Amino acid sequence: MTIYVTLWYPSRNGMRRSVTSAASVPVRAAIPDVKTRKQQLVREIIWDAATSLFAEKGYDETTVDEIAQAAGVSPRSCFRYFANKSEIMAYSLVSFAEQIIAAIDACPKTCSMREVFRRMMLQVVEDAVKHPRPRRVFEILKRWPAADAAHSTRMADAQAMVSGAFAKRIPKNRTAGLAAALLGGLAIQMTGVTIRWCIEREQSDVEAAVNETLATFGQLFSA
Q: Closest Cα partner for 66 from 83, 87, 80, 52?
């Protein structure tokens, strides 16, 4: 939106604007209210308890009642957040998409799309290899086909979410929608593959892994 400022103030690019000129200022996302933050916290607690049980006991063998007990909520409360066990497993893909979006949004507006994509991968992969939860999820997906199938049910939603984040950075033209859709799909798949690569091979040099992924992808179309 456009506003008129009454005092000098620093902007993102280090310049300063005065009351004599109009400034276009990006509207910041509203801070979630207490109820929304509480709901998100409970959802994360349920999901974390579920993935721990899936890894320890098995996806097929774990019941929603057991998940609720491990999370410290009633089964009824659990169903308020997730309709069934499949939805709980699929939430990991939605959470992954949200991480990607946060990394995209954190990139300066001056970055090229190539740099945005690379920075996004670096941030998300680095965060993933530092924490045990992504390792747990990958192990569950590998060992239980039903979990993998449940996880994939939200793929279209996840890609649409990430595509929306890229769309905000793409100039509006005839192919803008196609470009955003391609970037959304590539971001999820390439970042996921790189995380798996790092975990399975105990690769600690994330930057080298990301560079290798991007270089390999580029070589596929250079011939």
A: 52
Domain of residue 70, residue span:
32-82
The Cα-based distances of 156 to 20, 83, 185, 197 in angstroms read 47, 19, 9, 23
Give me the torsion for CA of 88, 94, 100, 101, rounded to 10°. Answer: -140
Cβ-based neighbours of 154, under 8 Å, separated by 6 or more? 90, 91, 93, 94
Q: Do both 44 and 18 map to the same domain? A: no
The residues, ordered by sequence, that sit 6+ positions from 1 with a Cβ below 8 Å of its Cβ are 24, 25, 27
- Any domain includes 67: yes
* Whether 46 and 120 share a structural domain: no
pTM: 0.80
| pLDDT tens for each residue of 133-187 | 888 999 999 999 999 999 999 999 999 999 999 999 999 999 999 999 999 999 9
For the residues of 146-212, what is the DSSP string, one character each? HHHHHHHTTHHHHHHHHHHHHHTTSPPSTTHHHHHHHHHHHHHHHHHHHHHHHHHTT---HHHHHHH
